[in-house]
From TrEMBL:
Protein name, as recorded: PaaI family thioesterase
Family that this chain belongs to: Belongs to the thioesterase PaaI family.
UniProt domain Thioesterase: residue ranges: 61-138
Record keywords: Hydrolase
InterPro entries: ACOT13, HotDog_dom_sf, PAAI_dom, Thioestr_dom
Amino acid sequence: MSAPTVDVASLSGLEVMQLIAAGELPPPPIAALLGMDVEEVGDGFATFGLEPDARMLNPIGSVHGGIAATLLDSCMGCAVHTTLAPGLGYTTAQLNLHYLRAMQPGMGRVRATGSVLHRGRKQATAEAKLYDDAGRLLAHGTTTCLILGL
């Protein structure tokens, strides 16, 4: 017997994100590719985590900055997603990041938490911070997302 299908288009952004966090909907392919998990979601916020590993190294031997960028962009975008009514989507229009410390394989789990600062009719802004297991700030950023009618 197959599992019932979910009509994602009929769900709010918060409902979709809660189902992904609960494992009732599959994560987006980028999350599976990087080993990124949705740890927590709520109205206007989202937390993502992953463990940096050697597959993510750049030529100078640290984890590529794109991994931090992807984590921050994902949690900020998904924080915006939690505010959307059924039938609405979003896209990142602007992404600003500040890198403070490098990630290394074996450093343990890192977590990025994003929260919505402003949600308008056509755009939203959000901020996020990325921390290591010791509570040190690794990077932070802001985004502007365009709200799209589907």
